[in-house]
Amino acid sequence: MIKNRNLPSGTRDEFGPRAAVKETISAQLMAIFKRRGFAKLTTPILEYADVFKPLNLDNYRPYQLLDEQGEALVLRPDLTLPVARMMSTTGVELPAKWYYSGDVFRVKKQLSGSYNQLTQAGIELVGYGSLKGEWECLTIALAGCSATGVDEMTLELSDARFVNTVLAALPVSETTDSALKQALFDKDLTTYNHIAQLMADTDFGSFLEEWPWLFGDFDTVMAVVQRLPKIPKLQPVIDDLIATNAFINRLAPNQKVVLDLSIPSPQQYYTGMAFRGYTQNASDYLFSGGRYDDLLTSFQQVKEPAVGLAFDVDALADRAPTPSSPPQTLIYFQPSQWQAAEAKLAATPNSTLCLADSLGEAQRIAVSTNKQLLDLTKAGA
Amino acid sequence: MAIKIALTKGRVEEQVVPLLEASGIDCSGIRNKGRRLIFDEDPVYETILVKGPDVLTYLNNGSVHLGIVGSDILEEQNNTQYAMLDLGVGRCRFVLASTSQFDPQQVRRKIIATKYPNITKRYFQSIGEDVEIIRIEGSVELAPLIGLADAIVDITETGTTLRENNLHVYAELQPVSTKLVVNRLAVKQYQTEIRTLISNLKNAQTKLGVNA
């Protein structure tokens, strides 16, 4: 007999209501992707470790193993880079719209209550360089949340270009620049204020004072941005954000939009707008995405515009109510009545065949699982 | 919904409670706690008392929004949440210490005993050395005296314990102090409240003469 029946740390079995909720959510998201004309892409769970080199591995430590030649393989910690690998090697014609669904594996701190296997469902748009790409992702983000029963979601916009463009314009050395950036990204106010103090008397003073807090209501944040002296390279970034905010206001007038211009982009390869969604009580983002035109340059010479979005199916499931299904009907029958039972099954919604051999056993199952028993062996049934 | 704070119990708690009170948070429950661990006297903040290493477990999980814990633990656990404010209390320092027989230039791989293996590893990496680390849970000073290790990496406030055990400081590593740590998502969900708290804490520091 097998002695070790434990699960590896950070994993879990999913069954019953939890499994049902996740399946429903995945199906609802897939239906949206398909309806909007995306094509399915499935990549393997195993990839060479090299594929994920562009990732900052702090939060994406992968499970590793070796293939027959001794090359390092990993269980994929991310679903976007495999799409880029696939695009660069298969000669698929651009532009392309993909959707995917699957599990990613990230080794977290042991015994900390976090799970290492997470389910994602998302899209990648490759070959579309204009804001229409971002807007398609945002439309899907909103549709996905609404289809899976998320109300009161806060949509957060940010942009990978903002921080670096402002830093480059500051009248300080590169060393000071990078120290300020680190303190800003860590929200280490004590260190940040020390450095920002050096520029208190410059044109940037009043902006720098607010920068670590530069997130929240869209218009309030934009008002602080107006305090900056003119930085020509910043204008297109601001224009994109304003246009996108207006777009969302038209698409979903009640959608709460916040702006965060104080955070790093989710990954190094992000080149433009980024967006995430969360609810007031959640401890995880429900979705995350953005523009990463540098994504393919890790795999090929030619740069291709790309923008994508991934839903965290586990986070969506965590906040979904447990489905209250009407009691199931249990159809009891003799083996000779299989065809009649089959017809009953087809005609009765939410029913299942009772495979027990005796009526007594069928009644016991019906009582213990709170099902209605339909007995086909009884005359007139 | 109340904003939840995980406060390190013991010395950190004693040093931080006056700051919290001066920031307008009702700490009467913590002052007379008996065996309680959850304190909801304040209308805005609910405080729980936990051991230092557990603060980040609660915070990373999103079970609490704020944590108050020493930077020694934050560094040892490779904290990724926002350590937003240095509270200026609980100041001490990491040191490399040993008996007077210890030779830092010895030509073999040193054996270092410590409660902080990650910090020890990073320190020796930074000076280009590789050492063998032995993890000890308490009374680390014993290790070089009993011959378990060549030296120790530990925190010290005044150096009294080291001196009483005839240990000398061979190198001073990074300083330590108590930090206010904020969950990355909570800072967005409770922006106004957290910003007010930080500003109140800064005023309290000035009022109580605590230098950040």
From TrEMBL, chain B:
What are the BP-aspect GO terms?
Answer: L-histidine biosynthetic process
Under InterPro entries, the record lists:
ATP_PRibTrfase_cat, ATP_PRibTrfase_CS, ATP_PRibTrfase_HisG, ATP_PRibTrfase_HisG_short
Keywords assigned by UniProt? Amino-acid biosynthesis, ATP-binding, Cytoplasm, Glycosyltransferase, Histidine biosynthesis, Nucleotide-binding, Transferase
Q: Which organism is it from?
A: Secundilactobacillus folii
For this protein, the record's PROSITE patterns field holds: ATP_P_PHORIBOSYLTR
The UniProt family comment states: Belongs to the ATP phosphoribosyltransferase family. Short subfamily.
**Matches recorded under CDD domains:** PBP2_HisGs
Its quaternary structure? Heteromultimer composed of HisG and HisZ subunits.
* Record's keyword annotation contains Amino-acid biosynthesis: yes
Protein known as = ATP phosphoribosyltransferase
Principal EC category: transferase
Q: What is its main location?
A: cytoplasm
Q: Which Gene3D superfamilies match?
A: Periplasmic binding protein-like II (3.40.190.10)
ATP phosphoribosyltransferase catalytic domain spans which residues? 53-202
